[in-house]
Amino acid sequence: MKFSIFSIARNAMSYHENWQAHWRNPEPKSEYEVIIIGGGGHGLATAYYLAKECGVRSIAVLERNRIGGGNSCRNTTIVRSNYLWDEAANLFEKSMQLWEGLSQDINYNVMFSQRGVLNLCHTLQDMRDAARRVNANRLNGIDALLLDAQQVKALEPLIDISPSARYPIVGATFQPRGGNARHDGVAWGFARAADSRGVDIIQNCEVTGIRIENGMVIGVDTSRGFIKGKKVGMVAAGHSGVVAAMAGLRLPVESHPLQALVSEPLKPCINTVVMSNAVHGYISQSDKGDLVIGAGIDQYCGYGQRGSYNVIEGTLSPIVELFPSLSRVRMNRQWGGIVDVTPDACPIVGTTPVKNLFINCGWGTGGFKATPGSGWVFAHTIAKGEPHPLAAPFALDRHISGALIDEHGASAVAH
Amino acid sequence: MLLITCPWCGPRAESEFSCGGEAHIVRPKDPDALSDAEWADYVFYRTNTKGDHAEQWVHTYGCRRWFNVIRNTVTYEIKAVYKPGETPAGGEA
């Protein structure tokens, strides 16, 4: 079934009661060429590009719960590629380019909206860092503009740029191609597109062990029995350490709660995505009208999908200082996701010491924007058995070799 | 917000404290003798336990002293608080 204006018209005749399920719910087969552990956006995108770009015919995605029920539905949906260092910029820009054609490619409206991303500067040093990052972005072919306070005000009329503000705004960087997308739609869209290419998406199937023989992976034990696999990719986000431990691997990763919250719906009032490194808050407005507000990670390790209230307070108070007219807006919902954070706040994508076992984790607080790019490079990594050139700098052993990518705090928002 | 009992000051709100990560990581006595992998393990690799986790906290906005906490990383329940050099009541960390 292809979505088009004709299919909408046809289904309107039957009061939209005959749309078919977007993906099958198959029983697991006994053997697959590639098994992906984790049915979030990244895992589903990996399966899709494996089927589409790499011609792999037999793929399973194993998900412990339901697809798109973890971090895929718990993020603040921001998409940008304005990273400072070449390695990160190239990877996230690849993702951005995939975003730009994604709805057409997977025939699913992911509501990608390039409304622009502002990264506020509050001090002279912020402006110097911003100018450096804008120049670095431009050298990498990424759109970036340096704005002064008046230009910020023109984009966001509600923002307080008075010099006496608690967090005075000196200027901002602006990436016009940045924006946001509908996070559920991305997971569903990739699931549907992968399924239509024959990928088995197996939900409620928890991986309980990874079987290794002679240093080579041979399959996974699951709550629904043993499944043989020639290659296995681990894309388990917050639980990457737990899954990797099944293969005897220790990771340079710690899992933290990351909180976000949405307000009651309002008329359109925030035009772009506004982020501030210094106060560590970010805000955008969804198409439904709710303000989507994100925080920094909670300081402690946690798998509980919830964090502490002082972090919410620490986020909302500067948001209200930046947008004083939002002070009486009531918050509707608040939640936490589990993010796995690496010491250099950059992802880990690549091979492992176990043959035919691959890992994709450590996206920390910024994984959503990478969904298509992560899937793209990981699919190639799995298919070829060696890292995709864009993923090569993000090897698992970079914390041993010392080739860290010092994006921590250097990117548009401190991770 | 967690309610953390500082061994010196008593129960206080989490916002008075800073978390210092995994506890009981011992600095290698002879760093020159370590391989890169062993050094990386000391500096960067963590157990990231799902369950009871020994971690260090400091009472930043109080007595500014460090101590250890056994906290469950799923329920966030604090099971034991003990001073540096001590072992937690009821077992090993």
UniProtKB/TrEMBL annotation, chain A:
GO molecular function: nucleotide binding; sarcosine oxidase activity
Location (main, coarse): cytoplasm
Keyword line: Cytoplasm, Nucleotide-binding, Oxidoreductase
Name assigned to this protein: Heterotetrameric sarcosine oxidase beta subunit
Compartments, record wording: Cytoplasm
Record keyword Metal-binding present: no
GO cellular component terms, semicolon-separated: cytoplasm
Entry keyword Cytoplasm: yes
One GO term of the biological process aspect: tetrahydrofolate metabolic process
Residues annotated as signal peptide: none
From TrEMBL, chain B:
InterPro entries the UniProt entry points to: SoxD (IPR006279), SoxD_sf (IPR038561)
One Gene Ontology term of the molecular function aspect: sarcosine oxidase activity
Protein name as catalogued: Heterotetrameric sarcosine oxidase delta subunit
Source species: Plasticicumulans acidivorans
One of the GO biological process terms: tetrahydrofolate metabolic process
Superkingdom, natural source: Bacteria
